[in-house]
TrEMBL record:
Single GO cellular component term: cytosol
Lineage of source species: Bacteria, Pseudomonadati, Pseudomonadota, Alphaproteobacteria, Hyphomicrobiales
InterPro entries membership: Cys_rich_dom
Top-level taxon: Bacteria
Protein name: Fe-S oxidoreductase
Pfam families with a match to the protein in the record: CCG (PF02754)
Annotated organism of origin: Methylopila turkensis
Gene Ontology terms, MF aspect: oxidoreductase activity
Annotated ranges, domain Cysteine-rich: 11-91, 139-223
C-alpha cells in the first residue's frame, strides 16, 4: 500500500561512497528527482553505510558507522539512497546490529522505517508515475541483487522508464541474475566474479540495446569495465541520470568532455 503523500517532506540524501568518489552526477540526478517529487533535499555529513565491514564480519565497525548515520539523519522525514545495496544495508541490516539492546534497537528500527532506495521512494512513497525526461534509443535494465531481493525493486524503475520520451526498454535474458560484483565478493573471488560478469555482459550485448541501466553504481562499474575490456559498444549509466534528463553525460568509464 502506498505511503500517505506528505506536503513537503524533508529528505536526507544518502549519497553513497561510490557516488561521492566516482560518479557525483548520480547524486545530482537523485536530488533533482527527489525535489521534482515535491520534497526538500538535504545532504547531511555522512560516511560509508557499513556494508563492507558488515559483510566481512566486522560488527564493531558496522555499529560505529550505523550510530554515526543515525545521528546525522535524525532530523529528516526520509533517508533516500540511489543504491539498492546501501539502502538494503541501512533498512534491513542496521537493526540487526542492535538486537538485544532495547533502546538502540528501538532507535534503529525507527531509522530503518524511514530508509528507501531512490526509485522505490519516488514510486512507492511519493506516487510518481512519470518523469519529464527524454532519452533517444533502447536501454536494457539490470536488476541489482540487493535492490531486488532485499527491497522488492523490480517494476518501479521500468514503470518510470516507460514514461521517458524516446526511450524503449529491451529486456535482456536473465535481468535478475547477479553481475558478479557483490562488493567484497569480487575482491575475494576474482575469477568467479569475472566468469559471472562475463555471462552477464553477453546477455547485455545480446539484448541489442546500446545502453545498460541499473540502480547500483558498483554493479554498473563492474559491468561497464567488462564490456569495455571485451570491446562491446554498450554504454552504462545509472537509471537516475536517465530519469532526471541527464543522459547526455559521458557514460560510466568514459572520459569527461573537455570544455
Amino acid at each position: 500500500m502506498p505511503h500517505p503523500v506528505e506536503p513537503r517532506p524533508r529528505v536526507g540524501l544518502f549519497a553513497t561512497c561510490l557516488v561521492d568518489l566516482i560518479r557525483p552526477s548520480v547524486g545530482f540526478a537523485a536530488a533533482k528527482l527527489i525535489e521534482d517529487a515535491g520534497c526538500e533535499v538535504v545532504v547531511p555529513e555522512q560516511t560509508c553505510c557499513g556494508q563492507p565491514a558488515f559483510n566481512s564480519g566486522d560488527r564493531a565497525t558496522s555499529r560505529a558507522l550505523a550510530l554515526q548515520i543515525m545521528d546525522a539523519f535524525q532530523g529528516v522525514n526520509y533517508v533516500v539512497a540511489p543504491s539498492g545495496s546501501c539502502a538494503g544495508m541501512l533498512k534491513r541490516h542496521v537493526p540487526e546490529l542492535f538486537e538485544g539492546e532495547p533502546e538502540l534497537a528501538r532507535r534503529a528500527a525507527a531509522f530503518s522505517d524511514r530508509v528507501f532506495e531512490l526509485v522505490s521512494f519516488l514510486v512507492d512513497v511519493r506516487g510518481v508515475r512519470s518523469v519529464a525526461a527524454r532519452f533517444d534509443g533502447a536501454v536494457t535494465y539490470h536488476d541489482s541483487c540487493s535492490g531486488l531481493r532485499e527491497l522488492g525493486i523490480k517494476s518501479q524503475p521500468r514503470r518510470l522508464l516507460d514514461s521517458v520520451e524516446g526511450l524503449t526498454v529491451s529486456e535482456m535474458k536473465d535481468p535478475d541474475v547477479c553481475c558478479g560484483f557483490g562488493g567484497t565478493f569480487a575482491v575475494k573471488y576474482g575469477e568467479i566474479s569475472d566468469a559471472i560478469v562475463g555471462k552477464k555482459v553477453e546477455n547485455v550485448a545480446a539484448s541489442g540495446a546500446p545502453t545498460l541501466l541499473a540502480g547500483d553504481l558498483g554493479c554498473l562499474m563492474n559491468m561497464a569495465g567488462k564490456l569495455q575490456r571485451l570491446g562491446r559498444p554498450v554504454k552504462a549509466r545509472h537509471v537516475a541520470e536517465v530519469l532526471a534528463g541527464m543522459g547526455a553525460e559521458p557514460a560510466i568509464g568514459e572520459p569527461e568532455a573537455r570544455s
